[in-house]
Each structure stands twice: as C-alpha cells, then as structure tokens.
C-alpha cells in the first residue's frame, strides 16, 4: 500500500486484482454447461474480458493464466471444431480459414503462457536449446504441485500449435518443449483437470503408427481406469489417435460408441463431454474412418 502513487491508484489496483482473482475462481462454472452455442459465446466474451484485465493489470498472473487457458481451450473446442466441420463439407477455403484461427489461438496461448512462466523463472529461450537442458530447467524451477496447471496449459497449447502447423519444420523441431512441460505437469499432479496431462501424452505417443504405441495404450488404459470412463475425451482420443493409427477398427468403434451412448457421466464435465460427443459423431463419417484405413 505504501508503494502506491496515490490512494485512488491503490484502490483501483486492489479492486482490479480482486476481480481477476474472483474471475479465475469462478471460471470453472462453464464446465457444467452442455450447450455448445452458449459455451462458444461465453468463451469469446471471456477472452475479450481477460485481454482487458491483462491490459489493466499486466503483471497479474491470474489474468495471464486465464488468457493461456482460455486461448488454448478456444483453439481446441471451437476453431478446430469449425475447421473439421469445413473439412467434412469439402470446403477447403473455410477449412484453411479456421485452421489459421486455431493456430492463432494456440500461438496466443503460448505467448501468454511463456509470459506467465517468466514470472517464476528466467532463461526459457536458452533452456530450450535441447531436450536435456530444457528438462533440467523445468526440474530446477518448477517443483510445486500448483505449478502443474500452468505447465499443463502451456504445454497443451504448444502441442496444439505443432499439430495445426505440422507442415512447419521449425515448430515440429521444438515439439519436445511441449512434451516436456506436459510430462513435468503429470509428474507434479497427475490428476489435474481429470488426468488431462496423461491423455495428452497418450495422444502424443500415438502420433503415428510408428511411434510409441505401447506406451500410448498403457496411458489411455490408465486414464480410463482413473476417470472411471466419465471423462469422454479419453475414449475419443483413444479411438481417433491410438485405434486409428493402430488400424484397430473394433477398438475404434467401441470407444466412439461409448462416447455417443454416455448420458451425463459427470455434471462437472458436461461441456468437455459435449465437445467429445460432437467430435465422436464426426469420427464415424466415412471420410474419417477411411483415413484410418477402415
């Protein structure tokens, strides 16, 4: 308080920081809503609000976290969804447009995420020289369970950006950065966000038919058991990543049908489960199963 330039400035800062903190605490309310259009509108409005909060309080880490998580979630849940819908319609122009939007969302999430990490540790650019130096940097500066959520969302956005921009050798060459952050997040708190870190790593290990498929299967089976089949994105990714690249049609159909026939397995995950159902219906289209070789 003594460092404030004026009493009015202090009051504004306290109110702004308090509002941002309360917004972060209440942001999970969206998870209980199963209406896609409501979620899309709310997410877009929320991002504009978070950008404004960051402008008012540039050093507030809660605002940076909301921006990192918000942009990463928007890229997956909405921009990629519209990209896939355009692909299924054969509209290459709109598919390219939404692909660009998805990449922008992930890039913005990474931008804010790295700024957030910088509040805790310097030296990110030098650390990512190679996989070994980066893992040592993570081990040195991030050892608290609460660090898992930041590392998860930055790592998730990093992998999302690579997946969208896989034709960019520079991005692919730094894929290890996102993987290392997810691995560290899982090490610190494997249960964070319904074992999402484990699911993301399982999908990564099934990125091609020649990758670490056995490790992917083990992680997916572990995530299914721990989430008690209530987190439908586990089954969705098990089908579209592992079973697809493995050429296992029976497993693919089993997992997709499990998603589609699930009623309301967890009220606290209605939104993400609704997204999983949207993607699962799309996964049964002939064009997509043919991509798996079925």
Throw out a few tags for this protein.
globular; 77% helix; 294 residues
Q: Categorize the overall geometry.
A: globular
The DSSP helix count reads: 15
Q: Strand portion, in percent?
A: under 5%
Rg (C-alpha, Å): 20 Å
Oligomer: single chain
Distance between the termini: 66 Å
Low-confidence stretches: none
Task: Count the beta strands.
Answer: 0
Summarize the helix and strand pattern as letters: HHHHHHHHHHHHHHH
Structural class call reads mainly alpha
Task: Report the biggest beta sheet as strand number plus sense, adding barrel if it closes.
Answer: none
Mean pLDDT, nearest integer? 93
Helix content: over 70%
Provide an overview of this structure.
- By secondary structure, this protein is mainly α.
- The protein has 15 helices and no strands.
- Helix 3 (61-89) packs parallel to helix 7 (147-164) and helix 7 packs antiparallel against helix 9.
- The longest helix has 29 residues, at 61-89.
- The protein starts with 6 loop residues before the first helix and ends with a helix.
- The relative contact order is 0.08.
């Amino acid at each position: 308080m003594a460092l404030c330039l004026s009493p009015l400035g202090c009051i504004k800062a306290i109110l702004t920081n308090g509002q941002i903190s309360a917004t972060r605490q209440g942001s999970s309310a969206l998870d209980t809503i199963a209406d896609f259009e409501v979620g899309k509108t709310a997410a877009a409005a929320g991002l504009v609000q978070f950008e404004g909060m960051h402008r008012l309080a540039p050093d507030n880490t809660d605002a940076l976290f909301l921006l990192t998580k918000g942009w990463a979630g928007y890229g997956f849940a909405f921009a990629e969804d519209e990209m896939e819908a355009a692909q299924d319609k054969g509209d290459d122009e709109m598919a390219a447009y939404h692909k660009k939007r998805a990449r922008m969302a992930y890039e913005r999430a990474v931008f804010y995420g790295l700024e957030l990490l910088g509040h805790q540790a310097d030296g990110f650019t030098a650390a990512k020289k190679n996989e070994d130096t980066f893992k040592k940097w993570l081990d040195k500066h991030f050892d608290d369970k609460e660090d898992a959520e930041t590392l998860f969302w930055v790592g998730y956005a990093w992998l999302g950006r690579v997946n969208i921009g896989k034709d960019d050798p520079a991005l692919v060459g730094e894929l290890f950065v996102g993987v290392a952050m997810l691995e560290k997040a899982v090490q610190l708190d494997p249960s964070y966000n319904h074992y999402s870190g484990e699911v993301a790593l399982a999908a990564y290990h099934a990125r091609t038919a020649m990758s670490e498929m056995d490790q992917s299967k083990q992680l997916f089976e572990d995530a299914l058991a721990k989430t008690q089949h209530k987190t439908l994105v586990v089954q969705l990714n098990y089908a579209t990543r592992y079973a697809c690249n493995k050429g296992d049609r029976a497993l693919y159909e089993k997992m997709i049908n499990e998603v589609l026939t699930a009623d309301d397995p967890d009220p606290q995950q209605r939104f993400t489960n609704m997204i999983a159902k949207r993607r699962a219906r799309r996964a049964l289209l002939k064009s997509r199963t043919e991509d798996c070789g079925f």
